[in-house]
Design goal:
Number of strands: 6
Largest sheet: 6 strands, parallel
Bound molecules: 3-methylbut-3-enyl trihydrogen diphosphate, magnesium ion
Helix content: 40-55%
Number of domains: 1
CATH superfamily: Decaprenyl diphosphate synthase-like
CATH architecture: 3-Layer(aba) Sandwich
Shape: globular
Order of helices and strands: HEHHEHEHEHHEEH
CATH class: Alpha Beta
Distance between the termini: 35 Å
CATH topology: Undecaprenyl pyrophosphate synthetase
Number of helices: 8
Strand content: 5-15%
Radius of gyration: 19 Å
Length: 248
C-alpha cells in the first residue's frame, strides 16, 4: 500500500467533504503508448479501461456529477486515423457499457456541439441519453466535441436572440441566465478539476464553470489512472480551503 493510500482510506472521507461535481481531463494516452513503443491508438484503448475504473470509483464514493473531457472541438485537427479510432472506441464503449450504467443507476448526458456530427455518432449520443434517462445515481457528463469558447458564444447568441425577439430584456441577463444557457445547464459548477499527464492547463474545458474550482494535477498518464489515483485526488481536494472571495 502506498503512502497516499495509507493516509486516506475511504472511511476517512465524510460525505460532506467530498466533491459534488468532479471534472476530469483525461490526458496522456498518446504519450503512455509511445513510452511503451506502441501506437498512440493503443493508449486510447487503454484509456477506456482507465475511464471504467474512474466511473467505478465515482459510483463507489457516491459522487453526484462526473464530467469527463473525452474529445475537444480542437481534437478534430489530429490525423484522421487517430480521430476515427477515438470515435470508434467511444461508440464501442457506450454500446458495451450502457447496460452497466443502467445497472449502476448512472445517467449519461453528452455535453458539446452537435453541429457537424455524423448520424451514427448522433444516434449513439441519443441512445445513451435515452436509455439512462431514468437513472438517479451518478450523472456522467461526457464532454464530446466540446469547446468552452464556442459554448459561451452559443450561449451569447441564444441570449441575444431572446433579447431581439423581446422574450427577455437586456437587464434580465445575469450570471444565472448565462449559466442556464450553457451546455451544462442545470449542473452545479465543478468543485474540482483533475488533469493527468503533467499538463497544467484547461485546454478549453469548462472555462465559465471553473471560476471557483479547485485544480488537481497528477503526473501519471491517463491509462495508469486507478483507484489509488482517485483516492489521491480526493485527498488533495479535501485538504483545500475554499473561500469564494470571502474571509476564511
Ligand atoms: C487524451 O490523450 C485523449 C484525447 C485528447 C482524446 P492524448 O491523446 O491527448 O495523449 P497525449 O497528450 O498526446 O499524450
Ligand atoms: C484535452 O487534451 C482534451 C481531452 C482530454 C479530450 P489535449 O491533449 O487535446 O490538450 P492539449 O492539446 O495538450 O492542450
Ligand atoms: Mg493530450
Amino acid at each position: 500500500m502506498d503512502s497516499a493510500l495509507a493516509k486516506s482510506t475511504p472511511l476517512e472521507f465524510t460525505p460532506d467533504q467530498l466533491p459534488v461535481h468532479i471534472g476530469v481531463i483525461m490526458d496522456g494516452n498518446g504519450r503512455w503508448a509511445q513510452a511503451r513503443g506502441k501506437h498512440r491508438t493503443e493508449g486510447h484503448r487503454a484509456g477506456v479501461e482507465a475511464l471504467r475504473r474512474l466511473i467505478t470509483c465515482a459510483v463507489e464514493f457516491d459522487i453526484k456529477y462526473l464530467t469527463i473531457f473525452s474529445f475537444s472541438s480542437e481534437n478534430w485537427q489530429r490525423p484522421a486515423d487517430e480521430v476515427n479510432t477515438i470515435l470508434g472506441l467511444m461508440k464501442k464503449f457506450v454500446a458495451s457499457d450502457v447496460g452497466t450504467f443502467v445497472q449502476n443507476n448512472v445517467r449519461v448526458r453528452i455535453l458539446g456541439s452537435r453541429v457537424g456530427l455524423n448520424n451514427s455518432v448522433l444516434k449513439m449520443i441519443d441512445d445513451a441519453e435515452q436509455r439512462t434517462q431514468h437513472c438517479t445515481g451518478l450523472q456522467l457528463n461526457v464532454a464530446f466535441n466540446y469547446g468552452a469558447r464556442s459554448e459561451m458564444l452559443d450561449a451569447a447568441k441564444s441570449i441575444a436572440a431572446k433579447v431581439a425577439s423581446g422574450e427577455i430584456q437586456l437587464d434580465d441577463i445575469d450570471e444565472n441566465l448565462f449559466s442556464q444557457s450553457l451546455y451544462t445547464t442545470g449542473l452545479p459548477d465543478p468543485d474540482v478539476i483533475f488533469r493527468t499527464s503533467g499538463e497544467q492547463r484547461l485546454s478549453n474545458f469548462l472555462l465559465w464553470q471553473a471560476a471557483y474550482s479547485e485544480f488537481v494535477f497528477s503526473e501519471e498518464y491517463w491509462p495508469d489512472f486507478d483507484r489509488a489515483s482517485f483516492l489521491r485526488l480526493l485527498d488533495a481536494y479535501t485538504g483545500r480551503k475554499r473561500r469564494f472571495g470571502c474571509v476564511g
